[in-house]
Amino acid sequence: MTSHESVIITSTEWMRRFVAARRAEGRRIAFVPTMGYLHGGHLSLVEKASSLADCIIVSIFVNPTQFGPNEDLDRYPRDLDGDLQKLSGYPVQAVFCPAVTELYPAGFQTSIHVERVSAPLCGASRPGHFAGVATVVLKLFNIVRPDLAVFGLKDYQQFQVIRTMVRDLDVPVEVVGCEIVRESDGLAMSSRNVFLTPDQRVAAVILHHSLEDAATEIGARRLVRASEVERFLSQRIAAEPLARIDYVSCRDAASLESVDALEAPVVLALAVFFGHTRLIDNRVISV
C-alpha cells in the first residue's frame, strides 16, 4: 500500500487557511469526523470519501460534551500515533487534531439541540449526548467547510440527527452514510470493543445474530408489529447471560418515531451492556 503524508493541523485558524488554499486550487473537499482509535469501520469512511472528492480531511477529537458525567470519557481509548499510521495508507491531505480548549474556549456557552429525532433511543439513555454531537459537528463543519461529510451508519441515530440539523439550518454540506463494517463473526466494529473481555467478546455477537433473526422473521411476516419485533429481540438477547439490555426498539427508519404495524421501512436499534461496555447496533428493514 502506498504511504501518504498528511498535514497535522491543531488550530482552527490553520485549518481555515489550509481549506482556503485547497478551495483556491478548485479542490472538492470531503470530511470524515472521528474520535480516533481508528478501526476498519473508520477507514471505510475514509475510503468512501476518497471516491467522492480529491481533498480528504479527517478530524480526531474526543468530544467531551457528548459524554455524560458517569460515562467513559476518561477511559475512551486513544492512540493518535497509531491512528496517523493507519491513515498513512490513504490519500488524506490533512488530519485536524484540536485540543479541547481550541474548540471550547473559556466562556463557550452555545449548544445545538435537534429536538424530536434526538429524543428516543440513545437520546433517552444518554441525556445531552446529541446536543454535544450536534454542537461539535456544526463547529467542525464551520471550520472545515467541506462539500461533503461521511458518517458510519452504526451510529444510526447520530446520522439522522446530523442530517436533520444540516437540513433545518441550511448547512451547505452533503451528508453521506456508509454501511456498518463488521468483524468476521458479525460484531459491528467499534472502538469500545477493546474493553470487552474474551467471554464478553464471544457473547456480543448475539446483537448481530438477533438482528438477523428478526429480519428473517419480519421478511416471513411472522412479525408484523413493532411490539412483536421488540419482544422477539429482547427475548433473544436476554438469553445471553452476559448481556444487559439498555434498549431494544423498532422505529420508523426516517423519523425515528414509534410505529405500530410494520408498513414502511423501520430501523431495529439496540443498545446493550457487556460488563461496563455499552455497544450499539442496528438493522434497517424495508417492509
Describe this structure in words.
This protein is of the alpha/beta class. It has 2 domains: 7-178, Rossmann fold, CATH 3.40.50; 191-285, Pantoate--beta-alanine Ligase, Chain: A,domain 2 (2-Layer Sandwich), CATH 3.30.1300. It has 10 helices and 9 strands. It has helices at 12-24, 40-52, 80-87, 100-103, 122-125, 129-144, 156-168, 198-203, 206-219, 226-238; strands spanning 7-9, 29-34, 55-60, 92-96, 148-152, 174-178, 243-252, 266-274, 277-285. It has a 6-stranded parallel β-sheet, with helices on both faces. A 3-stranded antiparallel β-sheet has the order 7-8-9. β2 (29-34), α2 (40-52) and β3 (55-60) form a beta-alpha-beta unit. α6 (129-144) crosses α7 (156-168) and α9 (206-219) runs antiparallel to α10 (226-238). It starts with 6 loop residues before the first strand and ends with a strand. The model has no long low-confidence stretch (mean pLDDT 97).
What's the CATH architecture name of the largest domain? 3-Layer(aba) Sandwich
> Structural class of the secondary structure composition?
alpha/beta
Instruction: Outline the biggest β-sheet.
Output: 6 strands, parallel
Q: Within the CATH hierarchy, at the fold level, what is the topology of the largest domain? A: Rossmann fold
- Helix count equals 10
Q: Major sheet: order of its strands?
A: 1-4-3-2-5-6
- Percentage of residues assigned to helices: 25-40%
How far the N terminus sits from the C terminus, by CA atoms, comes to: 42 Å
| CATH superfamily heading of the largest domain | HUPs
- Spatial shape: globular
